[in-house]
Amino acid sequence: MLRKIDKNIWIAEQPLKYFGLSVGTRMTVIRFNNGELAVISPIQVDDETTEQLNQLGNVKYIIAPNLFHYLFLSNFKAVYPQSKVYAVSALKAKRPEISIDQALEDNGENLLGELECLLFEGFKTFLPSGALPLNEYIFFHAESKTLVLTDTAFYFDETFPMTTKIVSQIMGGYKKFRPSLLEQLATQEKEKVKQSVQKVLRWDFRRVIVAHGSIVEHDAKKQFKEGYEWFLGESL
């Protein structure tokens, strides 16, 4: 079910467990002036959501923003076969069975001139197989002054289950808008991350939509800056 956040931007959510923790997941839908829709980090689509999307416009772009948010990409494409799949180029090597129409790296710094984006360089996370890059693209919707992140920061608050709250506190992130301790330990190229953060801070955003955690509606830019000062261990 879609929920309107601001003019020409909606979200839809569904439950998700990550290593047994309830973290939820969220997709973002943006409508361009020509009526075309971009879906960022698609979730499992159902009849109700499909009907709502069809009422909003024409689903033209389905975007996998990093190397991990692709699970429902093919399902979404099957419902909207006329759409184009955009993803980071490295996803082709990781999941060659997924049909990708265009690499985000080939698209420049905006999509149709209405959705700005940048590659968040240097950022890694820990998985059982070791420290792995996210290759995440971050998006800025200027019309609603909204930043759209996927796995480069989280905001777990009192609305989440007790186990999730306890673990996020251990990882340094309960009620704090920032990456977790795992990403801090995994990321060695801090200078690249710093440069990416500085680019993000040039955007005039007032809200941040994250894939995991609550939407940040208050002092979003200030919280993002403070979260990455903690991550980098220096002032920005």
UniProtKB/TrEMBL annotation:
InterPro entries: DUF4336, RibonucZ/Hydroxyglut_hydro. It holds the Pfam family DUF4336. This is DUF4336 domain-containing protein. It comes from Nostoc commune NIES-4072.
